[in-house]
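Section 5.1 Outputs to date
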Amino acid sequence: MNWIETADERLAAPQNIKSVILGPSGVGKTFLCRSLPPADTLMIDGEAGTLALGPWKGDTLDVRKMATALGKHPWEVMRALACLLAGPDFSDYEASPLGNIPGPYSPECHAGYMQGLPGLAERFAKYRNIFADSVTVASRWSFAWSSQQPEALSEKSGKKDSRGIYGLHGREMVRWFTQMQHMPKNLFMVGILDQEKDDLSRITYSPQIEGGKASRELAGIFDQVMTLTRINVSEAGAVEHAMADGTQHALVCTANPWGVPGKDRSGCLAPLEKPDLSAILAKLDGRQRTDGAGGAHTIPDNLALAAA
């Protein structure tokens, strides 16, 4: 087998985009799913938030409902879904005195998921896009599950040990992010964005995720990090998709003067893009880098973030 991929082979292969979309509560993150083609999109619902989808005709999977039917913790279901979507990880083993212990994404566990959830992996094959709502809820499930494990107890006192809980939770989340990143599909994972002001009135933004480790490593794992926000516009036409209150929605896709999360590994996106995920995919599939265009992609001075 030829293990070296030529440039022509790489360019001919379909792009698989992995994106995280953050934004304050109520800004319309779930609504973005409606901009994806329903025939080949699956919405993984962890927030009972399908009301925002309205007449959208795509398929949905209710994680909590599935966990209840299987008698499993929702976090165990999220791990199983990640393994079925991305396939087994042949490195997912932990060393022990009794030998290597298979992890939740190992070939052994993948075989167990295939047997316990017959036909689900085959149904996943039809989807090109996965919309996961949300990373915030997933982190809460991971933390709750971690607090129930043996690692959550202190070896000396036998009582709950917050360091053990947060350590396990952080490892669980990063492994789950990494597994989701490797699925051969486009992934859009949404989450709540927190805004904090310190004593000097400096504002910082961060994903609403339990524990610091997962929040810190999130941006380094995924290709695109975008912030869905409302922008005050003093000149018509600066950003499309006007709101009735005089503000407009936009996806902030790169480093920006507001300090909200933004990262574009492809170099194909403008600092501000329309909140249309199909249009985003079309730009990324075109593979035309624009980040070296001599300042062509700048944010107009008249734009400011609207109040959340």
